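Standup notes
- DV: blocked on the single-chain target, sequence here:
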Amino acid sequence: MCIRDRYIFITGGVVSSLGKGLASAALGALLQARGFSVRLRKLDPYLNVDPGTMSPFEHGEVFVTDDGAETDLDLGHYERFTGVAARKTDSVSSGRIYSSVLEKERRGDYLGKTIQVVPHVTNEIKDFIDIGDDEVDFMLCEIGGTVGDIEGLPFFEAIRQFSHGKPRGDCLFMHLTLLPYLNASGELKTKPTQHSVKELQSIGIAPDILVCRSEHPIPQKEREKLALFCNVRPESVIAAYDLSSIYDAPLAYHKEGLDQAVLDAFEITPAPKPNLEVWEDVSDRIHNPEGTVKIAIVGKYTQLEDAYKSITEALTHGGIRNRVKVQIGWFDSEIFDNKELAPHLKGYDGVLVPGGFGERGTEGMIKAATFSREQDVPYLGICLGMQMAVIEASRNLAKIKNAGSEEFDHEAGKKRFTPVVYHLKEWVEGNRTIKRDAGDDKGGTMRLGAYNAVLKENSKISKIYDNHAISERHRHRYEVDLKYKDKLEACGLLFSGMSPDNRLPEIVEMKNHPWFIGVQFHPELKSKPFEPHPLFADFIRAALDRSRLV
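- DV (later): unblocked, structure below
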């Protein structure tokens, strides 16, 4: 079914972190289930140009797109729920908007006019929203933060103007709020939502749909009250309850009537019936597992699980494929820099060492690789996790004294290691050669986005992918040095995946090990519940086999 492009703007109120990204992604999946095409976008009010230089403790993980954009983790939700690959044009921040406006001002594009938030900044935001407006049936745009935030005002004003510039009925506003429950009085309170909607109305935006987060059932009386005082239809007050799995969200929102409310608001009748078989299967596999595997994640940002959001979700997807529940044990690698790790890892069926930057916690990661190699425990090293596996093999198998990474020497300002991992100064991207220096700006200067790799015949990795050519997303500026390849392969390490020009190692595996693989790229970014990434699916399978042996 083809319709003219419609816009859905998702805003939040009362408190942050209510799940706008999840609600947006679930709605996108429901519209797809009815036969419509969708694209999702995130507009973030922070002044950073992108999250690429932000601390994982501050912002969570950085989600990387195929075309090399460093974006908000919500874009990961969008991809996981819809399967639509995100692009650079699907994420923007105040920093990028203001940078663009100021660049134009310096070039003289504004012909000497006084530059103001309205109209110049708001016009820039509107131009961004309008990109690709003829590509899909529904464009879903999530506005970061909450209504009333000072930094968000230009975005709210921009979407207000944008909606007035479109034909009547082409734009819809969905507002996500919280209904707090007071134990003392035993009732849900609607007033915070009323105030939030009033704040939205004061800047010229009237929500069409209210999505209300609540830990308790919303009585009909409260729904009618919200509808009356927030000026929405009673059937457009949608309850959003806590879920045991985020992948229940499409079915839960459908049950509450969210997709129907959206189609009714757009006057799309008769609405195509949804096909939810995919999500019913995913939900069934999650809630009816046939076993459990325990995976240890040894990383440096474990205090904030959002720092590894895509990894934990990809492990869940591997569990879905194998119909098992994945239990994750979190280990702060820094604690084990000067402490034994092995006793803590006993009882786990697999070990995963994720990406990261800097020397802190790396000795703990190396210990995790040693434990996995010596005890025949399945090991998956991602980005820095692969580099630590190579350093471990260099030290303990190849007897390369003081093997380490050039990154750590750069950080310390002195040479201490034999650099089996070096600073990547040059690589091929399409038809051009990219050159970098260690002193370059940190933001956007890494090897970013999708790159091809060639897999060695009869290797474990080629069997996992069932292919000899793959494309995966990267985010790194240090690389394993090929000059140590022969020495390491003589000790049992296999360089089983290389860049097409055979200059950059992409994958290593241990020859005489049940399952020991390190990858320079980030496979977790492309995994989906209905299409688990082959690496994670096979890693969980190997962990399951291990659990049955113990």
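- Follow-up: The chain has two domains: 6-282, 291-549.
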